[in-house]
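fyi for ur records
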Amino acid sequence: MSKSNNVSFLKVDDLDRDLRNILVVGHSFICYSVTAKRTSIRAIDTVSGEKALLKGHETSILDLKLSLTDDQSFCTVDHGPDLSKNHVFVWKRAASKTLEFESVYQSKLPAKIVQPNPAGGWAISDEKNIGLLTIDNATATQYSQLPYHIALEDERVSSKTHHRRCGLTHLFASLNLWVYVLSIV
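which gave:
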C-alpha cells in the first residue's frame, strides 16, 4: 500500500499501552500525534488546510486535551523517565491568520493523563499522583510541589493487563471528580 499526503496510516500494535488520546479538535484546527515515535503534533487549519508541525516532546505523547476556557489552546503529556526534560506542554494558537502555535507552558512532571480544569489550568496524573498545573507552578519537579495535589498510594493502578483497563478507568474517574471539586472551590 502506498502512502498518501492526505492520510496518516496508524497501526494499533504501534501504540503505547498507556495512550489515552491522539487527537484534539478545536474551533478552527485539528491536532494529532504523528511520527513513529509519536513525539510530534501535526496541526491542520480546518478552513485553509494549512499544516504545521509542533515539536518538543522527547517520548511518546500519551494524552491531548483541548482547554475548556480557551478553544485556541490544548495540553499534551508524555511519561518520559528523564526528569530534566519537559513532559507537559500547553500549546496556544497565535492570533495571526497563519497556523502557528507556541508552547506557552512547559513542565518537567511526567504524566499519563491530562484533564482541563473548568476554572483554568490542567489536572495531570502519572497513575500515582494527581496535581493541578497552572502557569504559576511551571517549575515544579514533583507533584508534592504543586499547591493542589493528591497521592494515590492505595489506588495505584495495577500493571497486570487484565486489571489495567479497570484501573485506568478508575483513575480517570478520580481525576474527573478531582477536577470538578477544584473548579467549585
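The radius of gyration is 16 Å. thats all i got for now
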